[in-house]
Amino acid sequence: MSSQYGKVISFILLERFGEIVEKVGSCLFHYGSSPLLYIKKYTNLPLSQVKEALCILIKYNLVTFVPNKNENIANYSLKCENIFLMLRYPKYIILIKKKFEDEGEVILEEVLLSGFSSASEIIFKSFNRLKEMENKTISEVQLRDVFMALVTAQYLMRIYIPEGNKAVPQLEISEKDKFIFPSIEAIEVKNLIEKNIPLKQESYWTINFDRFHQDLRDKLIISAITKKIDENAGELMKTFLEQMYIRTTAWADTSNPIPIQEVKNVIKKKNSLHVLSAFLDQYINVMEQDYCKMIRKFGEAGGGSYQIYLKDIIIHLVWETIEQIVLEKFDSKAARIFRLIRLKSYIEPEQIQQLAMIPAKEAKRLCYQLLEENFIKVQELRKSSSNSGPTKSFIFFNIQIAQVVRMVLELCYKSLYNVMTRRLSEKNVNKRIIDKKQRVDTIMLGMKVQGATEEQLADIEEMITPPEKELLGKIGKTMKKLNLVELELDDTVFLLELFLRYD
């Protein structure tokens, strides 16, 4: 793993858990799987603090452990991918809020805050939080149904809690047992809420990240097709994906054949898709004939079934993204050269000058800029004319997309670290005014609860002077912009990771 990736991981741990946990996490990142005493030696921390940090990391599924040769000692390993996923928590929450409204949002937040938790604790805490919301009425049965729906849809999965006194317990659980949900009676939930009596069949639950990534992938594909064609084409692809899950595993490269009649029946039932229903055949033809080849007819006879080529769609989106990066990093002529090399696979320098219609000197300069930044590669072919004669060589430019993706990922990690560092710097520089604003807001909230008048609240608000309000406005805009950049960078990272997953 790269140093830039390690910097991002360390920063996330420092920001969310503090210096001690960050030290332990950085130690595991640099030295790999290590036993407890080695971690203590490398970090130079007291044993009690190392144990506490490891407990926190294990609770949030950021560290895993296995027994070493001596089965009484555990080797601890950092789950870097899970640490990086903490940047996506806001996206997960928004996704669940759209599907399951406030109840689903609160349940997911409780699980994310606790790392893992029992069904009783999740339901109890969620009910109390929802009860405090204004204009919100919630019943115990309704909350139970939403919780069960999240498990049924596989957004939450069961984890194994070991029993007994084994020195290094195994936390493995079979795939079929992850989503088995015990029946919860309404009376049990009522007793839990009113009397705090735990459920009879207790189980512990955590987040299933893979399920969220399926939805994020589908959202990415639908959004790309909507921008490329229109909203009706996006709805058509959404319907195809829904039908795909009935007969195909979620991460397959290509879906099994989907009967077009099923798609038509689903679209007809949706009252809001009159235009799509009327011009369905035309939309299918447009998507089939697109050079991206997002859907293709199954078989030669045209039996009315189509397949979704998920891998090809992701590869196409990655190519488009990298071309856009080349355009922004260099210029339109460099992007033209990059696109030409992509289309030709292997191309000589002289051909680039002719086909790209760029002056020879400028084309050479741009090619070597792209070569220096690792967007393109050089391949040399040697051909001997005779035993005694000179050896003739041919130079070709080509693009090794997997290497380019990894290189762009490194750029994204570097940019993410810079954005995070800048955000922390803004907080530290303006710490005094930010703390003052928080104190004033706390006082105003307390006064409102006590029934303070508008004049009293206005007097408290005047504790912040007009210049300070102006400065707070600038700080807020800067923070908002940095947060937006961080989310957009993560979108790019997610797309590139999808490519590597399918590669």
TrEMBL record:
InterPro entries, A to Z: POLR3C_WHD (IPR055207), RNA_pol_III_RPC82-rel_HTH (IPR013197), RNA_pol_III_Rpc82_C (IPR008806), RPC3 (IPR039748), WH-like_DNA-bd_sf (IPR036388)
Domain (DNA-directed RNA polymerase III subunit RPC3 winged-helix) ranges: 322-399
Domain RNA polymerase III Rpc82 C -terminal, first and last residues per copy: 199-314
Location in the cell: Nucleus
Keywords, alphabetical: DNA-directed RNA polymerase, Nucleus, Transcription
Entry annotated with the keyword Oxidoreductase: no
Gene Ontology cellular-component terms listed: RNA polymerase III complex
Residue stretches making up the RNA polymerase III subunit RPC82-related helix-turn-helix domain: 11-67
Main location class: nucleus
Record's keyword annotation contains tRNA-binding: no
Any one GO BP annotation for this protein: DNA-templated transcription
Listed Pfam families: HTH_9, RNA_pol_Rpc82, RPC3_helical, WHD_POLR3C
An MF annotation (GO) of this entry: single-stranded DNA binding
Xref: PANTHER family: DNA-DIRECTED RNA POLYMERASE III SUBUNIT RPC3, RNA POLYMERASE III DNA DIRECTED -RELATED
Family: Belongs to the eukaryotic RPC3/POLR3C RNA polymerase subunit family.
Subunit structure: Component of the RNA polymerase III (Pol III) complex consisting of 17 subunits.
Function of the molecule: DNA-dependent RNA polymerase catalyzes the transcription of DNA into RNA using the four ribonucleoside triphosphates as substrates. Specific core component of RNA polymerase III which synthesizes small RNAs, such as 5S rRNA and tRNAs.
Name of the protein this chain belongs to: DNA-directed RNA polymerase III subunit RPC3
